[in-house]
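Budget justification aside, the reviewers requested a transparent look at the raw inputs and outputs of the sequence design task funded under Objective 1. We therefore reproduce one unedited record. The lines immediately below are the structure tokens for a 308-residue chain.
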């Protein structure tokens, strides 16, 4: 098939999810201020073009962990929740600061599984999003980690790829962008297997595709590609296209919105009719030459250097 993405230019309501690896420096845990500032400018520019944007931002646990000086990933649920409580405020403070430079209002929206599955909560959440968007406020969403636990009635979503897809469904978004620490979906995890091929377009999520998607292989990542495939199912069923792209260069968001062929595009139910998955015929050069290993919080990962 020909991967023509010009139509992405017409997208109006966009949910953009940034993972911890995009928001913070993975090796120190500190907020990547430079990238966050650029991200905010990109978002404001999209608003200026007449788009509606909803941000789903991870990073609360990572930022809290760094602020508290914890050297290791929080071990208990309570530690994780403490980190999230500390980090969420700091994260919002930075977002607010950058958005304020353009007199742009933001809103913190903390959701639980209950907000998604309980019809009454769902109705309220949807109504709040609509009200915020109609007042040109940018919602910044995260899971309410402090009360999201398995044992409690509120339940847990557990990671933000799925949360972002639920939000896309809830607000009737026409595009969901997941900014990850990798440029999209490969036929296997490239951090473990160098002989991988890039998947440009997914029209159909079948068992073989699901097997290609593995979990996270860095200390700061949460769901890896498994949760992104799950997110893709929710978003595409709800009528939104979804793109996974690399948050390393945050300007990639502009390329996606300009219809450039970057990242892996998952076609919505409607757009997938008569289309097939498009997989690159061979391993990209930068993957074949990726030899250097670097430490990311104690994990060995392939350093892609500047070749990306
Ligand atoms: N088939 C695959 N293609 C690409 N990445 C994969 C695949 N399977 C597993 N992964 C892993 O998923 C990771 C991205 O997810 P994750 O660690 O949750 O980070 P983020 O929150 O930034 O998206 C990649 O760094 C990679 O190691
Ligand atoms: N709610 C958590 C996010 C969990 C999560 O999904 O993180 P990530 O895999 O970095 O997107 C936090 O803010 O730290």
């Amino acid at each position: 098939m020909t991967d023509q993405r010009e139509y992405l230019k017409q997208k109006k309501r966009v949910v953009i999810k940034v993972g911890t690896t995009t928001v913070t420096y993975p090796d120190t845990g500190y907020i990547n201020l430079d990238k966050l500032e650029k991200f905010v400018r990109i978002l404001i520019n999209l608003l200026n073009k007449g788009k509606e944007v909803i941000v789903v931002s991870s990073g609360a646990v990572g930022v809290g962990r760094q602020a508290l000086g914890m050297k290791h990933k929080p071990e208990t649920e309570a530690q994780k929740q403490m980190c999230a409580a500390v980090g969420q405020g700091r994260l919002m403070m930075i977002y607010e600061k950058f958005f304020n430079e353009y007199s742009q209002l933001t809103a913190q929206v903390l959701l639980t599984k209950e907000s998604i599955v309980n019809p009454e909560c769902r109705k309220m959440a949807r109504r709040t999003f609509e009200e915020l968007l109609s007042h040109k406020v940018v919602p910044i969403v995260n899971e309410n980690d402090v009360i999201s636990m398995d044992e409690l009635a509120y339940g847990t979503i557990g990671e933000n790829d799925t949360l972002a897809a639920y939000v896309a469904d809830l607000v009737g978004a026409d595009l969901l962008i997941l900014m990850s620490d990798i440029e999209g979906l490969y036929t296997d995890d490239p951090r473990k297997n160098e002989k991988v091929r890039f998947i440009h377009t997914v029209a159909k999520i079948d068992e073989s595709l699901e097997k290609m998607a593995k979990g996270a292989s860095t200390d700061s990542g949460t769901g890896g590609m498994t949760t992104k495939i799950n997110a893709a199912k929710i978003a595409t069923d709800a009528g939104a296209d979804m793109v996974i792209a690399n948050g390393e260069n945050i300007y990639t968001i502009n390329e996606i919105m300009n219809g450039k062929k970057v990242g892996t595009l998952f076609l919505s139910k409607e757009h997938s009719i008569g289309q097939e998955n498009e997989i690159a015929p061979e391993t990209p050069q930068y993957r074949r030459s990726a030899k250097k290993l670097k430490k990311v919080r104690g994990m060995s990962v392939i350093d892609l250097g500047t070749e990306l």
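The two ends are 25 Å apart (CA to CA). The first helix runs from residue 20 to 23. Computational costs for records of this kind are itemized in the attached budget.
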